[in-house]
Predict the structure.
Amino acid sequence: MLLFIDTTDPRQISVKVANTEIIKSVPSPRGGDVLKLIDEALKKANATKEKLTEIEVNPGPSTDLNVGVAVANALGASLHIPINHQKPGIFVKPIYKSTPS
């Protein structure tokens, strides 16, 4: 089962599991916000994190997107599932507009 995480909009988070999509407005996406939405989507899809087989996330470029990347990397590592069609254990690297300071 695919988990899709979208934090491309700095004012909202979108999470999709199976046919269940949840979009929530937030002042600025944070990891905890994303995790809560994932839990909510899993419950509505009548699924558990153990049923996830892959994660897709947009890697950048913005701080808000990097929140989604961090959550995807953590979940992918803990569940040993691929992220963005990579082999399990390969992390998605954030994309920056310029070099971070």
